[in-house]
Each structure stands twice: as structure tokens, then as C-alpha cells.
Amino acid sequence: MELSEETLSKIEDLIPKYPEKRSAALMVIHLVQDELGAISDDACSWIAEKLEVEPINIKELITFYPMLRETPWGKKHVRVCRTLPCALRGSYGTCKVLEEKLGVKEGHVREDGEFSIEFMECLADCGEGPVVMVGEETFENIEGKNAEKFADLLVQEKLNSSKDFVSYEKSLVTKPPSSKTTKKK
Amino acid sequence: MIKKKTPKERRIILKHADNPGYSNKLDCYLKNDGYAMLKKAFKMKPEEIGEEVLKSGVRGRGGAGFPAGMKWKFLDRKSGKPIYLICNADESEPGTFKDRQIMHKDPHQLIEGMMIAAYAIQAKQAFIYIRAEFFEGARILEEAIAEAKAKNFCGDKILGSSYSCDLVVHRGAGAYICGEETGLIESLEGKRPNPRIKPPYFPAVLGLYQCPTIVNNVETLCNVKHILEMGGEEFSKIGKPNNTGTRIWCVSGQVQKPGYYEFECGALTLGEMIYDVCGGLLPGRTLKAVIPGGSSSKILRADERFSGKLKDGTEFDWGIDDIPLDFDGPTSAGSMSGSGGIIVMDDTVDMVEAMANINAFYAHESCGQCTPCREGSLWMKKITTRMCGGGARKEDADLLLSVANQIEGRTICAFGEAASWPTQSFIAKFRDEFEDKAQNGSTKPPLQLI
Ligand SMILES: Cc1cc2nc3c(=O)[nH]c(=O)nc-3n(C[C@H](O)[C@H](O)[C@H](O)COP(=O)(O)O)c2cc1C
Ligand code: SF4
Ligand code: FES
Asked: Residue B41 and residue B52: Cα distance in Å, rounded?
């Protein structure tokens, strides 16, 4: 397992912020997972050593928290909200459209590793549902025809240039989200 | 008929958030009197701030509605252990999206509220526990904290005083149970978020690292700033007795204009919210049901009557439209205002499907420590999903009810109630639809909810 200098130095800065090292676990895991895409057994042991706990203390987090991974998601990970407010606005249809157009079932990674879809619980933006996230960005009101257009742009890698779906957050972003989410295995 | 005036929002927490040109940067916040209240706080004694918060009557905005001033009073100050402050920014209750607005658009308001609170309780360190799906929110907060630190509004020797308090943004990892305060604390300690049993683990006595800890919601902590600005007495005049201040209501589901709206507590009714503020239902639809306080709260049927006696002795007899939007209104109607997430459902909704959707959420999110919750939530999901797939049986309604009744009151944390209240109330109010499923199977639904 190898981590970039940048990640290593972020980890070094992070740990002393906590009164107890173990508290930094989730944040350190996030940093490692952002770079490697998933937490391997090696990574588990490395993090455990860093935080002076046993590897199982890290493993039990990876296996509990929905956002922590033992195998990576696709290069572009698509989160679709499943919960009632979004469902009332058509999110089940949205998920189906995305599954068809991206060629992968929810909960899975496309064979070429390009896309993965996660049909997941409330994303806390229910007033603008159905809500879809691509990587770290939120897109709102993705339903029906809109969903098809959205999926097409996503497949053509033109989504970022489209203003139509960009959520209100976009205008607030001071620095565009870094594209560090998931790298190739 | 005289057309009623649309009730007017009164924005205190979201006063600036959506104003054109208002940004989440420090210079903008300072131009709008930002951090003036922090300066005022540092001229007061910490316990004086606590007194103001107590006088204000402000109740927690995270779900349970417990008075914040009282919670602060419970803090064990004699133990000699360090005290911690945690802002609960997990915002995971389905139907709730208010904290998101605050953190994205006005992060310095939260930081100022938190630093005032931290000084008031003399916290050694403060944390913002934010759900990890808020990537942007966490980044915005990090930047805001860096700005605030550079100007000495938090961190070392705040405003040149002898008081220091660091503020750390801590991200969760996608689990709803991290919103439960003791689960949150376990999570912040780097463990699985298994809630702790109360007693003895009341955070104010045995919280983070077994030290006295205050956990408050984002909106609650923002209110602290405004309480200081107005004084507790004045603040308590906003809204109604026992329901003071404003609330940010989040309306989702099948209305014309879903969104977040800030009103004085009790300034409007549920009917005014749905029809006047949110533009009513979608064309050609009629109201069927409302879940008034996030998916954990009990559902209200559009045609039921709610009657009884209020705390002050006055009798009430309400239709769904008459329920006052404050803390006590939805409670009097047999539900609760919870996190302020109002989910509106119209006549196109199949109630068994809606139930199945909700049950899938709780089955996914149970932490698994207590057998009734872990097994029961999964059973309820399995039964309702089977019912929607054409396998409904006559006895299902009673079976669901018996499972739910055996969860409630038999678990470590209130998730048990959160998971069973929806089922109990759906069966109580829409039993006919559950029985009809068994009789007539699944008719092709207009909406797919599961
Ligand atoms: C299952 C469950 C989930 C909860 N989720 C949240 C949440 O996402 N955000 C929140 O502020 N409070 C949540 N709460 C309430 C917290 O436990 C706690 O009461 C609250 O953070 C206290 O803050 P307040 O007094 O300012 O409301 C949840 C409670 C339970 C039982
Ligand atoms: S009630 Fe459910 S969520 Fe709460 S501790 Fe028990 S199993 Fe976990
Ligand atoms: S239900 Fe989809 S964001 Fe809340």
C-alpha cells in the first residue's frame, strides 16, 4: 500500500486535532479511501498502527459504515436517493433510467469500472428531489425526461458543462470539487 | 369568501442566507454584524449566557425538542473533567434539509453560535459532526473555520482573552444512527456508532471520552447567537409560550413548492403551510396524509379529527389543516414536530408501498445492538415488501402491528420508537388499505415507492 505525500501529510495534521488518536479513525479512513478507492487489509493494518489500535478496530468500522468500502466503486460513482420524499417525486424511475443508460445495476460497478450506482437513503435535500449525486456534487430534480437527459450527458462526459442540473450549491463552491474521489485500482 | 393572506415568513436563522450577493465568506458575514455577539459574549460571565438561554425557552431543533438551557444546566461541572461541545450536523432524518441550508449558506453563523455556546459551557474543545454525504458542506465549514481562526474568533485565546477552544469538523460515513447523540459520541470516539444506554450515559454527565458533553443541533446552536442579541426575555416572546423562537420547516413530497420555510412557532397551521405557502397540491390531486416531523413521526390522515385538551387547559378540535406548526401542535395531534420535516402525500399514494419504503429505511439503518430493533425492523421491511410484490396475507396488518409493538420501549435508543411509530400509525389509520392488498392483490400502482 502506498499513499501520496499529500495524503500522508494530511493524516499527520489530522491526528493531533483529536484528544485521543482513535477518534481520528473515520477521517483517516476517508483520506485513505479517497486516494485508494477502498480499504484493503493492508490499509486497515496501516491505519490501525497509525492510530495505535488493533486492525479489527478499523475493520469493524469499514464493515459497518455504508460509505466505507472494501472494494472500490466505479470511477464515477452515482448516488440516487431512495427514501420516501424523493420516491414520491419519482426516484425509483430515475434509478431505473440511470441503470439502463449507464449499463449497471444499482449496488454494482460496471465491468469496465467506469460507473457504479448506489440507490441509497435520504441525502438531506428532500425539497429538491429526486436527488442524485455524482462523485461529490449534488444534482436536483432529476426525474422523468430530465433523468434521461441527465443520464445521457453523464455517459457522454458532458455533465459538468451543463448548467441545467447543477444544484444551488454550485454557485457557492469557491473551489470546484477536486476530482480525487476515486482513482483506478 | 375572503382570501386569507399568505402567512409571512419570519427569518431569523435564515435572515441572510438567500439574499442576493450574500456569501458564505467571512468578509460578508462581518459586513452583516458578524461575530458582534461573540464579542458581547466575552464581556459576560459564562453562566450569564446560560441564564439567557434558559430564559429564552429555546427547545432543541434536532428532534426531541428538549430545552437547551436546561440541558446545559445538567452539565456536570464538578467532575473536574474537560467539557466538550458537539454540534449534531448529521441531518439524516428523512424529510429534513434545514441544517444543510445553514451550513452551506451561512457557516459563520453556526461557528459564532458554537463559540458562544462553547464559552458559556467552558468547553475545552468543540466538534461539528457532519454527515459524510455533505462533501461540500464539510469543505465550506473547514474554510470558514480557517477564516475565523485567522481573525481569532475561534482557536487559541479567542478575541485576546484567556479562553481557547478549537473547533474540528468531523465527518461521519453514511450511517443514520450517528444522529442519535450517544451513537454520535461513540462514532466520534472512532468506534461503531452503537448508542449507549441512558441512564447512566447521559452525555451531559458521561459523554465524549466519559466526560461531560453537550450535543446540540445546528439550528439550536445558531439560535444561541440570536438569544444573546435579543436577550433571553425578548427571544421568549417570539412564537408562543413553551414554543419559542422560529423554526425552519422542511416541506417535501407532493406539493407544488416544496422547500424550507422559516416561521415563528405557531404562526401558521399545517393547512396554511401546504396550501398558502407551498402552493397546494399537484394539479388534480387531493390530500391523503401528512407525516409532520420526519419519517419517524406518526402519520396523520387528511380526514381525521384531532381533539383533546391542550396543556393550558383549552380544548381543541382540529382537522389536519388546523394543526398549529410549533412544537406542541403536532404532539397534541398524536404525532410530533420532530426535526421539522413535513412529508406530504396525495391520493395517488399506495399506503402499503409508502410503508414499505419507510420500513426499508429503518431496516437498513438499525445499528443491530438490540434484538427487537435489528430483527423487527427487518421483519417489517420483509412483510411490507412481500405485500407490495403480490404476496399480501389477511393477517399481515396484525402481524406488522405485533412486531412494531414488540420493538417500542424495548431497545437501547429511541431508534426503536422511530422504527415502530410509522408502522403503528400506518396500520391504525390505513388498515383498510393493508387489508385490501390481501383481498385484491397489488393493483398497478401509479407511483413506485418500493
Ligand atoms: C435515531 C435518531 C436519529 C437522530 N438523528 C438526528 C440528526 O440527524 N440530527 C440531529 O440534530 N439530531 C438527531 N437526533 C436527536 C439527537 O439524539 C439529539 O437529541 C439532538 O442532537 C440534540 O440536539 P438538540 O437538543 O439541539 O435538538 C436523532 C435521534 C435519534 C433517536
Ligand atoms: S434501538 Fe436499534 S438503533 Fe438503537 S441501539 Fe438498539 S439496535 Fe441500535
Ligand atoms: S428523501 Fe431524498 S434527499 Fe431526502
From this structure: 11
Report strand pairing: B213-217 vs A115-120: unpaired
Map residue B241 onto helix, strand or coil.
coil
d(CA B377, CA B156): 47
DSSP tag of B429 = H
CB A122 near ligand 3, within 6 Å: yes
Cβ-contact A139, A150 below 8 angstroms: yes
ipTM above 0.85, yes or no: yes
For chain B, 450 residues long, give each residue's pLDDT as a single digit of tens: 445 566 889 999 999 998 988 999 999 999 999 999 999 999 999 999 999 999 999 999 999 999 999 999 999 999 999 999 999 999 999 999 999 999 999 999 999 999 999 999 999 999 999 999 999 999 999 999 999 999 999 999 999 999 999 999 999 999 999 999 999 999 999 999 999 999 999 999 999 999 999 999 999 999 999 999 999 999 999 999 999 999 999 999 999 999 999 999 999 999 999 999 999 999 999 999 999 999 999 999 999 999 999 988 899 999 999 999 999 999 999 999 999 999 999 999 999 999 999 999 999 999 999 999 999 999 999 999 999 988 999 999 999 999 999 999 999 999 999 999 999 999 999 999 999 998 887 665 667 888
Specify the CATH number of the domain B243-346. 3.10.20.600
Spatial distance between the Cα atoms of B423 and B450, rounded to a whole number of angstroms: 16
Measure the CA–CA gap between A134 and B351, rounded to whole angstroms: 31
* A89: phi then psi, degrees, rounded to nearest 5: -100, 5
- Say how far apart CA A25 and CA A68 lie, in whole Å: 12
Alpha carbon B290 to its chain centroid, in Å, reads: 17
Please provide the size of chain B in residues: 450
- CA dist B383 and B394 (Å) reads 12
B260 — contact with chain A (CB < 8 Å)?
yes
**Separation between Cα atoms, residue B425 and residue B418, nearest integer Å:** 11
Grid coordinates 479489527 are at which residue? A56
Q: How far is CA B159 from the centre of its chain?
A: 32
Beta bridge mates, B318:
B306
> Per DSSP, what are the bridge partners of residue A116?
A77, A109
Q: Which residues numbered 387-426 in B keep a CB inside 8 Å of some CB on A?
A: none
Closest Cα to atom 8 of ligand 2: B367
- DSSP assignment of B49-67 equals HHHHHHHHTPBPSSSS--B
Which of B277-296 are b and which e, b meaning 16 or more Cβ less than 10 Å from the residue's Cβ? Answer: bbeebeeebebbbbbbbbbb
Spell out the domain ranges in chain B.
Answer: 26-237, 243-346, 351-440
CATH number for the domain whose boundaries are B351-440? 1.20.1440.230
Which residues between 334 and 363 in chain B have a beta carbon less than 8 angstroms from any beta carbon of chain A? 341, 343, 345, 349, 354, 357-358, 360-361
Q: Kindly determine whether residue A24 and residue B360, on different chains, have CB atoms separated by under 8 Å.
A: no
Sheet holding B213-217, edge to edge: B166-171, B125-130, B84-89, B213-217
What is the spatial distance between Cα A80 and Cα A69, in angstroms, rounded to a whole number? Answer: 18
Q: What is the CATH topology of the domain spanning B26-237?
A: Rossmann fold (3.40.50)
